[in-house]
Amino acid sequence: MELIEAIESWKRALEDCWAKSPPGLPEYKSRVIKDFQEGRIHDGDRSIWLCGPGRGHKHYGVRSALRDFLSSFGFVVVFTEDHYSGRLLSEVEDQQFKVHYLTIVLCLSPGSAGEAINFLHQERTIGRFAKLKVFIPSDYKDGYVYRCLDEGGMLPGPRILPESQFDISSPELAIAVYETIWAHIENDSRSRQLALRDEAASQAV
Question: What is the pTM of this model?
Answer without folding.
Answer: 0.87
